[in-house]
Amino acid sequence: MPATVRQKRRWPKIIAWVVTAIIVLDLIGGAVFFQIAFVRSHKNFIRQHPIRRTDRLYKEEVWFRDSPKQHWVMRAANGRDRLVADYIPATHRTDKTALICHGFMNRKETMGAYATMFHKMGYNVLLPDARAHGQSTGKLIGYGWPERNDQRLWIKRIIKHNGQDSRIVMFGVSMGGATTMMTSGLHLPSQVKCFVEDCGYSSVLGELSYEAQARYHLPAFLTVQFETAMSLYNRALNGFFLRQASSTAALHHNYRPMLFIHGASDTFVPTRMVYQNYHATRGPRELWIVPGAKHASSYQTQPSQYQRHVQRFVSRYVH
């Protein structure tokens, strides 16, 4: 057989091997990043610090830590996971409640300063642990998308506890901010009056893509390939494709007031994302970019101004 004929016959095999190798690489890469991003485990890039006397919000954190709390338990919207929350009634009986959502790989206790802020404003406060976080059960993190259905159940629980005259503000930071925006796109009871989101991302896919390139320095084409495999894993195990989970898309269905807060020096959820979210919402809106603030640090950076912005905004809609 002539050499040229043998070489022509080899090419289909070589192409098949190359295609197979690319598919296998994509599946392995997607599995690795799915494990890092979605599976409940210790994350080296998330650091939590104990309360320190030098913290600008030390008094607020200590007040929350030492406050007596009611323990609320509920079944998640998926019917499997057990959700746990802390509830602190206001000093004087009121129908105003703040529902507070924590960030990625945090827990309800890390939101103590925010809970103190709302409690001093005269609110009851409810702080749930999201699925796969804190005391709540679950193995997979949903970045706010499946959790938005859990938040709607917590809202109904608040109304059941405090009555039909309840007036609810939903507040969240980072993943909690995205959860707040995603929840705003659902059909919600009229008792939800407004939202405050702090440094939430515009979409899960956008945030994961940004982190893959910023943290792991992956080239854009490889990021896209891994994302496709990761999205398939997530659909099979977590119930949704990554492109579905969008704060921006959810905000197109929100007509309630929302305050957007973002640090000007945020490099974890890039500041540019807040503009996409701000322009997407349909209801009354306000935007505050905090000079010098890094990710989830706006309150610590400017405590007095932060409290004033939040209180002024919510007071317009919670009378």
Q: What's a quick, concise take on this entry?
A:
With 319 residues, the chain is of the alpha/beta class.
Structure description:
- This protein is an alpha/beta fold and 319 residues long.
- The protein has one domain (53-203, 245-317): 3-Layer(aba) Sandwich (Rossmann fold).
- 45% of the residues lie in helices and 16% in strands.
- It is built from eleven helices and eight strands.
- It has an eight-stranded mixed sheet with strand order 1-2-4-3-5-6-7-8, with helices on both faces.
- α4 crosses α5.
- It is globular, with a radius of gyration of 22 Å.
SSE map:
Blueprint: H1 3-38, H2 58-66, E1 70-75, E2 82-88, E3 96-101, H3 112-120, E4 124-128, H4 147-162, E5 167-173, H5 175-184, E6 192-198, H6 204-216, H7 220-238, H8 247-251, E7 258-263, H9 272-280, E8 285-290, H10 298-301, H11 303-317
Parallel strand pairs: 3-4, 3-5, 5-6, 6-7, 7-8
Antiparallel strand pairs: 1-2, 2-4
Helix pairs in contact: 1-7, 2-3, 4-5, 6-7
Can you give keywords for this protein?
alpha/beta, 319 residues, Rossmann fold, globular
The name of the CATH architecture is 3-Layer(aba) Sandwich
Radius of gyration: 22 Å
Largest sheet: 8 strands, mixed
Q: Return the average pLDDT rounded to an integer.
A: 90
> How many separate helices?
11
Number of domains: 1
Shape: globular
